[in-house]
Each structure stands twice: as structure tokens, then as C-alpha cells.
Design brief:
The protein is mostly helical. It has a single domain (about 15-90), classed as Orthogonal Bundle (DNA polymerase, domain 1), CATH 1.10.150.250. The protein contains five helices and no strands. The chain has helices at about 15-25, 30-40, 45-55, 60-70, 80-90. The longest helix has 14 residues, at about 30-40. The chain is globular. The termini are close together.
């Protein structure tokens, strides 16, 4: 997979920006994890979950990747239900 498989059509501007940012992280591994999650879930996220995802994408790639792959525990600031959903989603997809 080389990028988003989801059209941004029908999404509000906030979700469009977030979808783009999830696919353009800076490291390919994080593009695949967050981008695939956003493709699948962005339209159904609540406003609160969108806010939480916006905070998560500000976490540096090495720190977030290490937490998602269980190399180290997540920082309390971003551990939560959405983080757990992303981690579970990652486990059902590609081995990144």
C-alpha cells in the first residue's frame, strides 16, 4: 500500500486535514499505521475522538511507534481509548 485508499470527499475540512496528516507523518511505518486507521475510521470518529487524534499526531514518531508496538509503555498524556483502538487496528493489519 502506498497511500490513502479513501477519498476525502464527504469529510469536513478538519477531518480532511487529519486524514492527510495521518498519511504524511515523516516515517513510513507511522504513515501506514495512522494512515490506514484514518482511512478506515475518520468518518465515524466523534468530535472528541478527532481532537484526541489531533493530539496523538503531535507525538514524535519514534515515541508513538514505540508505544504502539509495545517497545515502551505509552505516556499517560496519550494513553487512552483511541490509542488502544489504533493499537488494536494495527494488530489486525499489516505487520509494520
Amino acid at each position: 500500500m502506498t497511500g490513502s485508499t479513501r477519498s476525502s470527499g464527504g469529510l469536513d475540512d478538519r477531518r480532511k486535514r487529519l486524514l492527510f496528516r495521518c498519511w504524511h507523518r515523516g516515517t513510513r511505518e507511522m504513515d501506514l499505521i495512522l494512515g490506514r486507521f484514518a482511512d478506515a475510521e475518520i468518518a465515524s470518529l466523534s468530535d472528541g475522538e478527532v481532537t484526541e487524534l489531533e493530539r496523538l499526531i503531535e507525538v514524535p514518531d519514534p515515541d508513538l511507534y514505540a508505544a504502539l508496538t509495545e517497545e515502551k509503555p505509552p505516556a499517560p498524556a496519550y494513553a487512552g481509548a483511541l490509542f488502544d483502538r489504533i493499537k488494536a487496528f494495527r494488530a489486525t493489519g499489516l505487520d509494520v
